[in-house]
């Protein structure tokens, strides 16, 4: 009887083994189908081996948050590079920007903002008339204009270099305390009457002229002469080594080398280099370090490295002077030199002289 029960027991075990194998086969098939992507169930945000993002939007995974952070940094950088006044995206930038109005530019700019044309014809007559009216119109009254440097004789070498000594602009106070600084930029001029007068009054005077015989000469207790030419660009070191008498520097470079943070008076007689030097001072935002500005401008030709039609040249000149006004400089003295040829871009128009001396004061100077 024991022998008869053995087959029954073996048969039941066989059935259980087949049933288990079928179950395992079904689970394996189901797994393969899921891996093959046949009607996968909706995911709940669990990570899986498939690198492709799912079709429906899901809560951001850590990698997506890092991507969002990168996009935010790009937005802030592009906001800083955007030109003043907006442009591009209409999204309000976060509190990174100055108040509305003319923004205070920091760092170098790349070009001058040209003013609109004086008239629809864009002619020389329109531009010249606007420019000459502008340089002949006093913008702010100065009650105490220095007359020590004004010509008192008939010598044509004497130039009317004028400074404003009103207390509201601080120069008179600085002179009395012997704390003022004057930079004089020239090209071979022998007339140092103005510089000597300011040094005697108590100013620290630095005269820059490439024709000076030595690198640095102390003429008197407060009067230095430097063999340097102030230009709109720095000279290449190799060129400066070969030609020591033609050493050129930008004014920003000289200020950094001398360790000077401000100039109470900047006087310039650069013989037609003044337009490019003015442009450089504007582009590098140097004028915020200057209290008063005295420039001799020359109008008989466009000037060094200034080109274009006559009307576009005068528009460029006018735009430079308007930049001074936008930086809170106001014209307080204008002198028309009648001893020079009466030519304006080689033309006899509007009774204009070829040379004017203009004086501005920085109304924000402290």
Automatic annotation (TrEMBL):
Keywords: Signal. Residues 48-62 have a biased composition (Pro residues). Residues 38-111 are annotated as: Disordered. Residues 1-38 form the signal peptide. Coiled coil: none annotated. It holds the Pfam family Methyltransf_22. InterPro entries: Methyltranfer_dom, METTL24. This is Methyltransferase like 24. It comes from Monodon monoceros (Narwhal). The gene is METTL24.
């Amino acid at each position: 009887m024991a022998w008869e029960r053995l087959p029954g027991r073996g048969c039941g075990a066989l059935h259980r083994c087949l049933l288990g194998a079928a179950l395992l086969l079904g689970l394996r098939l189901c797994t393969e189908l899921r891996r093959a992507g046949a009607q996968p169930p909706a995911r709940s945000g669990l990570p899986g081996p498939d690198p492709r993002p799912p079709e429906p939007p899901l809560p951001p995974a850590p990698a997506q948050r890092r991507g969002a952070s990168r996009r935010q940094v790009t937005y802030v950088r592009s906001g800083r590079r955007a030109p003043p006044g907006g442009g591009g995206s209409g999204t309000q930038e976060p509190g990174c920007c100055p108040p509305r109005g003319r923004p205070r530019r920091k760092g170098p700019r790349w070009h001058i903002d040209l003013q609109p044309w004086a008239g629809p014809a864009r002619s020389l007559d329109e531009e010249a008339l606007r420019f000459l009216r502008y340089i002949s119109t006093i913008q702010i009254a100065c009650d105490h204009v220095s007359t020590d440097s004004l010509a008192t004789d008939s010598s044509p070498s004497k130039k009317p270099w004028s400074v404003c000594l009103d207390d509201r602009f601080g120069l008179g106070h600085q002179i009395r305390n012997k704390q003022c600084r004057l930079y004089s930029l020239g090209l071979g001029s022998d007339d140092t009457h103005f510089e000597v007068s300011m040094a005697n009054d108590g100013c620290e005077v630095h005269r820059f002229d490439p024709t000076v015989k030595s690198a640095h000469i102390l003429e008197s207790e407060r009067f230095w002469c430097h063999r340097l030419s102030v230009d709109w660009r720095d000279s290449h070191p190799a060129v400066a080594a070969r030609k020591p008498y033609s050493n050129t520097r930008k004014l920003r470079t000289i200020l950094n080398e001398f360790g000077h943070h401000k100039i109470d008076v900047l006087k310039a007689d650069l013989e037609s280099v003044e337009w490019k030097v003015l442009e450089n001072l504007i582009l590098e935002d140097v004028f915020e370090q200057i209290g008063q500005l005295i420039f001799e401008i020359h109008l008989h030709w466009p000037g060094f490295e200034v080109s274009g039609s006559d009307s576009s040249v005068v528009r460029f000149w006018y735009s430079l002077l308007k930049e001074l006004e936008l930086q809170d400089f106001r014209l307080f003295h204008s002198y028309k030199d009648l001893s020079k040829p009466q030519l304006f871009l080689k033309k006899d128009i509007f009774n204009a002289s070829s040379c004017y001396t203009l004086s501005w004061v920085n109304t924000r100077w402290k």
